[in-house]
Amino acid sequence: MMAGPPSRRASATERRAPSSGTSVWNAAVASVGGFISFHMRVNIKMGFALVAAHGVAVAVVRIAAAPLWGRAVDRLGARPVLVLCSFGVTVVPVIWMLPTPDQLWPIVLEALIAGVLWGGHGIASVDLSVALAPRCGRPFYLAAFATAGGPWVRCRLRPGGAAGLAPAGAVSPTRVQLDRDPRL
Predict the structure, then answer these.
(1) How far is the first Cα of the chain from the last one, in angstroms, to the nearest whole number?
(2) pLDDT exceeds 60 at position 91
(3) 15: number of Cβ within 10 Å
(4) How many other CB atoms are there within 10 angstroms of residue 26's CB atom?
(5) I want to staple 133 with a disulfide (CB 3.0 to 4.6 A). Which of 39, 101, 116, 138 is the partner?
(6) Measuring CA to CA, which residue among 44, 35, 33, 29 is closest to residue 164?
(7) Number of C-alpha atoms within 13 angstroms, CB side, residue 19?
(8) What is the pTM of this model?
């Protein structure tokens, strides 16, 4: 996965950077993640089967794109790929403003873009974590990198979901009005 050993040992600050970056990134992603499920079900009126099919489509595209991203990381390095995919993924929430119950084709576009970019993001972030972790104690560092974002995800999922539950008159970037749903 790695193109070769780093030319020098990573400093303690460089080893901490992925865990703090992961924490901030996971907080930002979780804010949107808690909202998207509500958006698909309530605003776009998608059934559970379509929501599940969307998840499967994203996963299949990630798997298909993985070998290409692996070669890109080997040739270019993890950091450029991670930067490209991170900036690219920021476009995905904008795509969610396009679909309507009568016009679902933007979701196919979103599944393709998200699958490709999240595939590259995952491969590059793991490769970067492996490259920065010292050989001695590497399992501990990799576990710390992987765990760093967990508490942030938990803290941000609820507010993201709550944005979808905003009362009908509240200022919200969404059209979600669950307070009028008789099933709740």
Answers:
(1) 48
(2) yes
(3) 17
(4) 20
(5) 138
(6) 35
(7) 17
(8) 0.71
